[in-house]
Amino acid sequence: MNTFSWAKDSPFRYRHTPAVAISVVLVVLLATLWMGATIVAADSPSPLTADAGPNQVIIPPGGPVEIATTFWFDWAGLQDWYDAMQLAFYDYGSIQGFGLQRNDYDGGCDETAGAVAATAVVSHTQNVGVIGPLCSSSTRGGAPILEAAGVVMISPSNTAADLGTYGPTVFNRVVLADPEFTPWDYRVSFLPSVYAWESGFETLYGHRPEQFARYVYDATTLLLTRLDEVSTVDGDGNLVIDRAELANAVRNTAGFAGITGDLTLEVDGDR
Fold first, then answer.
1. Is 11 a residue whose pLDDT tops 80?
2. Helix 136-149 vs helix 111-123: angle between axes, to the nearest 10 degrees?
3. What is the pLDDT of the chain when averaged over all its residues?
4. CA-CA distance, 57 to 5, in Å (whole number)?
5. CA distance 143 to 242
6. Kind and range of the H or E run holding 79
7. Within a 10 A sphere around the Cβ of 53, how many other Cβ atoms?
8. In what order do the strands lie in the sheet with 239-242?
C-alpha cells in the first residue's frame, strides 16, 4: 500500500485558482508530494483508536481521513488519476478540520486482483471508502468483499452493466453503463466545466489529462462531500464516521453538481 497525505486546511483550492497563481500552486503541490509520500506494507495494522462500533471508523485528533484507491498500477494513465484525486483533495479541503490521506492498492484488471486489493483495503480498518476500481472485472472480485465490510466504493470507470449485484449497498459509479457510455462520454467531453478543468490540469501538469481523470475528480469530490455530511466530532475530539450512513448518503445522491454534469445515482448505484 502506498500512502500519500495532504495538510489540512490548505489555502489552495484548484477549481478557483487564477491562472497567474498556477506556478505557485505547482510548487506547493510538488513539495507536498515529495515530502509527504511514504510506503508502508500492505498488511500494516490499523492504528489504535477509541472504541468503535462494528460499523464505525473513529479518527483521533490530528489523524487523517483515509481514503483508499484500487486503481491498476500498470494503467498508462495512472498518474493522471492520482493527480486528479490530489486536485479534488486540495479543492475540497479538510473534513471537519481533519486532513486527508490517500492509500493506494493495486486493483489490477481481473477478479483475483480486485479481490486481493479489496481484502487489503478492509484489513486496514481506517479506510473509510474506496475510489475505484478501474476495471469492471476487478469490481466483480472486490465488491463482494467491500460489501461484507460495509466499505463504500465509487468507480470512475466501470462500464459493465451488471456490477450493482456484486455490491448491493456499496457499489456506485459516476459513469454511465454500457452501451450508453461512449456516446454520453463524447458529449461530456464538450461541457464547458470539463474543458475548463482539463485546461487547468494541462497548465499545471503540462499535458491534457487521461480520459477518465475527470470522473476520478468527480468521484472523489462526491465522496468527500458525503463524508462531510455524515461525520461528527465527539466530546473527545475524535472524528466519527458510520460506514452504513456514508454508504447510504452516497447511494442517495441526487443532483450533485460535478464537473461532468449533475450526478444522480439510482438504487443500484448506477449513474
1. no
2. 30
3. 86
4. 18
5. 19
6. helix 78-92
7. 10
8. 56-59, 239-242, 232-233
Calculate the alpha carbon distances from 70 to 46, 130, 199, 268 in Å: 18, 7, 26, 20
- Angle formed by the axes of helices 78-92 and 192-205, to 10°? 110
Could you read off the pLDDT of 143-183 as tens digits, one per residue?
Answer: 999 999 999 999 999 999 999 999 999 999 999 999 999 99
Count of other CB atoms within 10 angstroms of residue 112: 12
Tell me what pLDDT residue 61 has.
Answer: 97
> Is the model's pLDDT at 213 over the cut of 70?
yes
Please state the φ and ψ torsions of residue 130, each to the nearest 5 degrees. -130, 135
* Helix, coil or strand: residue 174: coil
The three grid cell numbers given for residue 241, joined into one nine-digit string: 464516521
The residues, ordered by sequence, that sit 6+ positions from 135 with a Cβ below 8 Å of its Cβ are 72, 107, 108, 109, 110, 114, 157, 158
Sequence-separated (6 or more) residues with CB below 8 Å from residue 47: 60, 63, 126
Residue linked to cell 467531453: 189
What is the spatial distance between Cα 248 and Cα 170, in angstroms, rounded to a whole number?
Answer: 8
Grid cell, residue 11, equals 489555502
What tens digit of pLDDT does each residue of 42-98 get? 344 444 444 556 689 999 999 999 999 999 999 999 999 999 999 999 999 999 999
Element (H, E) at 220: helix 213-230
